[in-house]
Design a protein that fits this description.
The structure holds two protein chains of two kinds. By secondary structure, chain A is an alpha+beta fold. Chain A has five domains: 129 residues, Calcium-transporting ATPase, cytoplasmic transduction domain A (Distorted Sandwich), CATH 2.70.150; 80 residues, no CATH class; 250 residues, no CATH class; 188 residues, HAD superfamily/HAD-like (Rossmann fold), CATH 3.40.50.1000; 248 residues, Calcium-transporting ATPase, cytoplasmic domain N (3-Layer(aba) Sandwich). In chain A, 45% of the residues lie in helices and 19% in strands. In chain A, the strands form six sheets. Chain A has a nine-stranded mixed sheet with strand order 11-32-31-30-12-26-29-28-27, with helices on both faces. Chain A has a nine-stranded antiparallel sheet with strand order 14-13-25-24-23-22-21-20-19, sandwiched between helices. Chain A has a four-stranded antiparallel sheet with strand order 1-10-2-8. In chain A, β6 and β7 form a beta hairpin. In chain B, a hairpin with a 2-residue loop joins β7 and β8. Chain B contains eleven helices and twelve strands. The chains are: A alpha+beta, B alpha+beta. β33 of chain A pairs antiparallel with β1 of chain B. Chain B: One of its GO terms (cellular component) is Golgi apparatus. Chain B: It comes from Arachis duranensis (Wild peanut).
């Protein structure tokens, strides 16, 4: 806005303090404080998908004082004071002075850059943060880059290979030096050095630099020739393989979530293979194990328990809970199961005390929240649906429940709410709202009735509520409610307690004064408001309690069971309270009755230490008794008494970052299950770090909410669940999927395959490059150490590009050691990755020894066979090239487990391609090796050599492989045989067996 | 060798059988009735039909036996072929120097005034059937030395002066203003000892044609490239070439330019197209021109018949026999091991998790 007129401006030109007008569906260019909107009450709806991924509309308010002013018509001057730019997208503090009045500004008055304005024709605001100072930009830090463990190990091996390379070059140069020394006298006359012109005695030095420099040059030359030893191409092929693997992971229909139409997402491309080595899984509970679809289940009102009955939904009660507004029918969007008795009672309310309580109870449910009702059109013009948009799923569930019982929230502005109570519209003034915060664990609303009475409704977690409830009043009801609460939470339900209080005029005035003061304070407003809230939320009269079912996701218990069979330790880190956590633990089969539970629940460091030490002693006993080596915890625990450790956030505060960490880790590593409840987001990361720091085992964190982000980023592998709690977790994750149970196919099938494939591929690439280098090296020993190469330059260049690259990439993407069915049937097979069976030092050295042997065969068979013959460099070079390429491909072929047509094509194809390339190179007359391949291939010796090389080189590997597989079979090997054996039986006999349903993931 | 999972006939049934598979999901189901999409779907789900060989004792033992049965006869055949070759090797570089000059070989070879004529008498051990190949053999020559191998210009050999970039030929790239044809150390050091053979009174006819590869003569060495300024420099390396013969007909040069792979090598000189009987004595008149003394090289003359395998070389036969017997032995060892200590196939009892639980 310039000179009282709005002008179009580019985003980058917007400056702090300017007044910005935004039309509907436009994106906000900077963080603005709302002044006025098209809505007369000053409400603006914004969509924050770009910011936190949540697609529901959020409401933002313009202050009433500025809403009235129209900037086009009247000038006004104001001053806004606010915090320095920071990252917190959920908080904002500031105040505004307009016309001498001080107005407080909070996070509900600011609209952040990246949001979109919806359902509002226009909004006018003052820019407060621009450009890089906007909260969206400040939050734009990339996720920390992760590197796969396999790659880290591989780098060690590559260092080894570099040492080896240097050694080869040094040997070459030392030998060259010795050769030069011993032929010192002849150098003058040798054709290739010719220092001296012997016919006329004149000195002429032909590129002879003295033997010091000659050695240096030899060294450098050999570095150039042997540098293939360091498999640079491996990095490229690994990337390609990972892309291929990611493609198949994304396409896997087992990990396709039909409910949300979301596929598996691979957000990180460099840690695919880590999925095959996971040892610890850290899981969030809400939204991860559970669906985070809250369902109102039970209510305890005034000490009486009303539980929803299953049958009631079928009777079509949704028709009854509708409201008429201007001739249109409003219905809540979601249907809720209702309890018939309670429904009847709530209808015939107001007559007795019981009815009054029920009335207050549901009024509290409908009013005491931050839900925004949105009216959505349906195909039937007379029927409209009310969609409750809110940040907390619990509140949504409660609001829908209230609507189902006839207390339908229809309208909410910052000043009042309209509730349709059994067809009668009632308007309440919202005098004050204390939002939920995690310290108080409750929220309250102060409603002004039309008859000027003022009531306070409070809703909150049971522990925090019971402490503020006046125990002298209705002690029996309190006791009854507590019993109900206990039984609810033991069913795994989430409980909330509702309380209320009639405020007297003096109490209200006192509160009002304090509230006004606190809400305009600039510094420490949150704390002040909290204090005000705690003061007023006191001596409440209990109304009742609600229980909401947090439904477990499909297949969670089975998934957890197979994860544990696979030797993966599942730790659940949740913000829920201990009882809920334990009950979810039981329902998800994480905890079983046979387990010994160790509960650590203490309030200071000393008792923590005591608890830990007791627990340690306790945990050692069963292990010592069963005398099973502790190297395989998953199974030894299954044999002895398994221990479950349950620890709460308060204890963790004392344990983490102190010397007790060590003891906790020791204890935790002996437990088969660890449940941490009441943990803060940062503590989650702390626990992950605790394990990550102390073991080399891989950790995986899975979660769905913003509170899991730190944990997801800390763990070796972070998995995000695209659930209800927004997309921050997905944004921070390496892999994202729709359901917890997809973890099973992800780890057991894809993780396993990826690990096996990549592990093999790395070893194979080392071998593939080392063998050609060794062949080149052996030849150097026969050329007076002058690094001549028999294999021509083109061939050695194409070697790692055309001759051998495709098979390793395709095999790395497509080969499967075991079928999906077997892998899911025997989760124990996953142990191969945890034990690092596919890639380890031993395997590396064995392969290198094999490489050494194979290179010797490849080189020396032709050498001796052609010794003292007329063979020329190009012919024998072609023989070496072909035999190395065929050998390397056959070596790979020998290790391929499943031959499908792609693999056939690529293996035989690359051999054919090599032959063609060699022929083409030899068909160029200006190359010295012209026609060599055709001339040598015409002789029998060439083919005999080729045959002899291939057989002799592969024999030891074949024999060792067989012996190893037959007498020291790995689990994978046995399962592979079992798989084949079973299939043979099927083919030979009854074909029906093959048709039996293949379990998709764990059976549900 | 059996097929893995879905052949196209079972695909439909299998697709139905997977519970929880997204039924409405466009690409998967509606179209999977057409076989192309079904195949694509199977590909995406990594369910391509595949065969999965497993090493069973039977196949492994059979493989080793087969190898034995292939390699032992092969070894015997190649050894026989190698033994049928008759070979006469005569080292003449020392013997051809007059006694008094043997202490100073360099003087002998560099002094043009000293006669290089030399006669050798070779006794034929067994009857040799034509064609008898004549090779000269140079030991310790290192024709594969890096600096030597590079010192040539293949374009020039084909196109003559049309190609002027002779930098690779240093130090023998040009004489005066024109590049030397053929340039480079290899050509410069072309072998120039000559041999004449007679048996009794009659001279043995030596065929010096077609000793180089036909491909080289026809396509690699130019038919109109003449060595007009070859060996004109102050330093003479090896033989001279007839400036009136095109390179494509200079077969000695062509043979020499095929640089040998190994430090000791033979090169074909010619063929005697007559049979030689046992105990014949062949007189060789040779011109000992080539300087191999300066670097301790050895010069040998080789007369050899040929078999289908090439020259005399026992290595391959011995190696084959060795591989063959080794395979046989291994197959027997494996057989014994298998009989004595068999492991049931695919028995889950052997998996680590079952072993663990049964042991405790």
């Amino acid at each position: 806005m310039v000179d009282g007129q709005f002008q179009g401006k580019k985003w980058k030109d917007v400056k702090v303090g300017e007044i910005v007008k935004i039309a509907a569906n436009e994106t906000i260019p900077c963080d603005i404080v709302l002044l006025s909107t098209s809505d007369p009450t000053g409400v603006a709806y914004v969509q924050t998908t770009n910011l936190d991924g949540e697609s529901n509309l959020k409401t933002r308010y313009a202050k009433q004082e500025t809403q009235a002013k129209v900037p086009e018509k009247e000038r006004f001057i104001g001053l806004i004071k606010c915090e320095k730019p920071n990252r917190n997208i959920y908080g904002f503090q500031g105040n505004m002075e307009v016309d001498g009045k001080r107005l407080s500004l909070g996070s509900s008055n600011i609209v952040l850059r990246g949001c979109e304005l919806k359902n509002t024709n226009w909004a006018v605001g003052v820019a407060v943060y621009c450009g890089h100072e906007t909260k969206a930009m400040l939050n734009n830090s990339g996720a920390p880059s992760k590197r796969s463990q396999l790659e880290t190990h591989m780098n060690l091996e590559i260092i080894m290979l570099s040492v080896f390379l240097v050694a080869l070059c040094s040997v070459t140069s030392v030998c060259a030096a010795i050769w030069l020394k011993s032929h010192k006298n002849e150098l003058d006359l040798m054709p290739y050095y010719r220092k001296l012109d012997f016919s006329e005695g004149e000195m002429e030095s032909y590129q002879y630099y003295g033997w010091g420099l000659e050695i240096l040059f030899t060294f450098l030359k050999s570095v150039i020739v042997f540098q293939v030893m360091i498999p640079i191409s491996l990095y490229i092929s690994m990337e390609l393989v990972r892309v291929g693997q990611a493609y198949f992971m994304i396409r896997d229909s087992r990990m396709y979530d039909a409910a949300t139409n979301s596929r598996f997402q691979c957000r990180a491309l460099n840690i695919n293979e880590d999925l095959g080595q996971i040892k610890y899984v850290f899981s969030d509970k809400t939204g991860t194990l559970t669906e985070n679809k809250m369902e109102f289940q039970c209510a305890s009102i005034w000490g009486v328990d009303y539980s929803s009955t299953e049958a009631s939904l079928e009777h079509g009660h949704q028709a009854e809970c509708s409201a008429q507004v201007d001739g249109k029918v409003l219905k809540p969007k979601m249907k809720v199961k209702v309890n018939q008795k309670l429904l009847q009672l709530s209808k015939n309310s107001f007559r007795n005390v019981e009815g009054k309580q029920i009335y207050d109870f549901f009024l509290a449910l409908a009013a005491c929240n931050t839900i925004v009702p949105l009216v959505v059109d349906t195909s039937d013009p007379t029927v409209k649906l009310i969609d409750y948009q809110g940040e907390s799923p619990d509140e949504q569930a409660l609001a829908y429940a209230a609507a189902a019982y006839g207390f339908m929230l229809i309208e909410r502005t910052s000043g009042h709410i309209v509730i349709d109570i059994h067809g009668k519209r009632q308007r309440f003034n919202v005098l004050g709202l204390h939002e939920f915060d995690s310290d108080r664990k409750r929220m309250s609303v102060i409603l002004g009735y039309t008859d000027n009475s003022v009531k306070l409704f409070v809703k909150g977690a049971d522990t925090s509520m019971l402490s503020v409830i006046d125990k002298s009043l209705n002690a029996e009801i309190l006791r009854a409610t507590e019993t109900h609460l206990h039984s609810y939470s033991s069913l795994g339900l989430r409980t909330l307690v509702i309380g209320m209080w009639d405020l007297s005029v003096s109490e209200f005035d006192q509160w009002h004064f304090a509230f006004e003061a606190a809400s305009t304070a600039l510094l420490g407003r949150a704390a002040l408001l909290r204090k005000v809230a705690s003061n007023v939320e006191n001596n409440l009269c209990i109304l009742g309690a609600t229980a909401i079912e947090d439904k477990l996701q499909k297949g969670v218990p089975e998934s957890i069971e197979s994860l544990r069979t696979a030797g993966i330790k599942v730790w659940v880190l949740t913000g829920d309270k201990q009882e809920t956590a334990i009950s979810i633990g039981y329902s998800s089969k994480l905890l079983t009755n046979s387990m010994t539970q160790i509960i650590i629940n203490s309030n200071n460091r000393e008792s923590c230490r005591r608890h830990l030490q007791n627990a340690l002693v306790k945990s050692r006993q069963p292990l010592a008794a069963s005398a099973v080596p502790n190297n395989f915890e998953g199974f030894s625990d299954a044999i002895g008494t398994p221990i479950a450790l349950i620890i709460d956030g308060t204890s963790l505060v004392y344990i983490l970052d102190s010397e007790l960490e060590e003891e906790l880790f020791e204890l935790a590593s002996r437990c088969s299950v660890v449940l941490c409840c009441r943990v803060a987001p940062l503590q989650k990361a702390g626990i992950v770090a605790l394990v990550k720091k102390r073991t080399a085992d891989m950790t995986l964190a899975i979660g769905d909410g913003a509170n899991d982000v730190s944990m997801i980023q800390m763990a070796d592998v972070g998995v995000g669940i695209s659930g209800q709690e927004g997309r921050q977790a997905v944004m921070a994750s390496d892999f994202a999927m729709g359901q917890f149970r997809f973890l099973v196919p992800l780890l057991f099938i894809h993780g396993h395959w990826n690990y096996q494939r990549l592990g093999y591929m790395i070893i194979y690439n080392f071998y593939r490059n080392a063998i050609i280098v060794l062949v080149l090296f052996w030849y150097v020993l026969f050329t007076a150490y002058t690094v001549t190469t028999a294999i021509n330059e083109w061939s050695s260049m194409l070697y790692s590009i055309i001759y051998t690259a495709f098979p390793t990439i395709v095999v790395g993407i497509l080969d499967k050691d075991l079928s999906k069915r077997i892998l899911l049937k025997y989760p124990q097979l996953y142990g191969a990755g945890q034990r690092r069976e596919a890639y380890n030092k031993k395997l590396f050295w064995v392969t290198m020894a094999d490489t050494f042997w194979q290179s010797i065969v490849v080189f020396f068979v032709p050498l001796f066979a052609y010794w003292g013959s007329t063979v020329d460099i190009s012919s024998i070079g072609d023989l070496w090239t072909l035999s190395v390429v065929i050998l390397v491909n056959l070596h790979l072929a020998m290790d391929i487990i499943r031959w499908n047509w792609v693999i056939h094509a690529v293996i035989w194809g690359s051999i054919v391609a090599t032959v063609i390339c060699v022929m083409i190179i030899d068909a160029i007359p200006t190359f010295s090796g012209y026609w060599a391949i055709f001339n040598t291939a015409a002789t029998g010796l060439f083919w005999l050599c080729l045959l002899g090389i291939l057989i002799a080189a592969l024999l030891p590997r074949f024999a060792v492989k067989y012996i190893y597989q037959y007498y020291y079979p790995s689990d994978i090997q046995i399962s592979r045989e079992a798989e084949k054996f079973a299939n043979q039986r099927v083919i030979g006999g009854n074909r029906q067996i093959e048709m039996y349903p293949i379990p998709d993931g764990p059976p549900r | 060798m059996d097929l893995d999972s879905g052949t196209s006939s079972t695909v439909g049934a299998r697709v139905q059988a997977i519970p929880g598979r997204p039924a409405q999901h466009g690409e998967t189901c509606k179209q999977c009735h057409s076989s192309g999409f079904a195949a694509l779907y199977q590909f995406k789900q990594q369910n391509l039909p595949a065969c999965k060989p497993v090493l069973t004792p039977a196949t492994v033992i059979a493989t080793f036996l087969l190898m034995g049965f292939i390699f032992i006869p092969l070894g015997l055949i190649t050894l026989r072929a190698s033994n049928s070759v008759v070979e006469i090797v005569d080292r003449y570089d020392i013997e051809c120097i007059p006694e008094e000059l043997r202490s100073n070989k360099l003087l002998y070879i560099t002094d043009d005034s000293i006669s290089k004529n030399c006669s050798r008498f070779l006794k034929v051990p067994k009857s040799m059937r034509a064609p008898i190949y004549i090779y000269y053999q140079l030991d310790n020559y290192y024709q594969n030395h890096r600096r030597y191998v590079k010192s040539r210009n293949d374009k020039q050999l084909l196109h003559g002066l049309g190609d002027n970039s002779t930098s690779s030929c240093i130090p023998l790239e040009s004489s005066g203003d024109l590049p030397i044809v053929p340039c480079g150390l290899i050509a410069w050091s072309v072998f120039n000892d000559t041999f004449k053979f007679s048996s009794g009174s009659s001279e043995l006819k030596v065929n010096r044609k077609n000793i180089a590869w036909k491909s080289d003569r026809n396509h690699k060495f130019g038919k109109d490239v003449y060595p007009f300024n070859f060996q004109n420099g102050p330093l003479i390396g090896g033989g001279k070439l007839d400036p009136n013969t095109p390179l494509s007909d200079q077969e000695d040069l062509i043979v020499w330019m095929r640089t040998a792979a190994l430090p000791s090598f033979r090169k074909l000189y010619g063929r005697i197209e007559e049979d030689l009987d046992a105990d014949d004595v062949i007189v060789v008149q040779l011109m000992n021109n080539y300087n191999a003394y300066s670097f301790g090289g050895k010069k040998k003359l080789v007369l050899s018949t040929s078999s289908w395998l090439g020259g005399k070389n026992d290595f391959f036969g011995v190696a084959s026999l060795f591989i063959g017997t080794f395979c046989m032995l291994i197959s027997i060892v494996f057989l014994l091991l298998h009989v004595k200590n068999p492991r049931p196939y695919g028995d889950a009892m052997y998996t680590s998790w079952n072993k663990k639980s049964s042991s405790s």
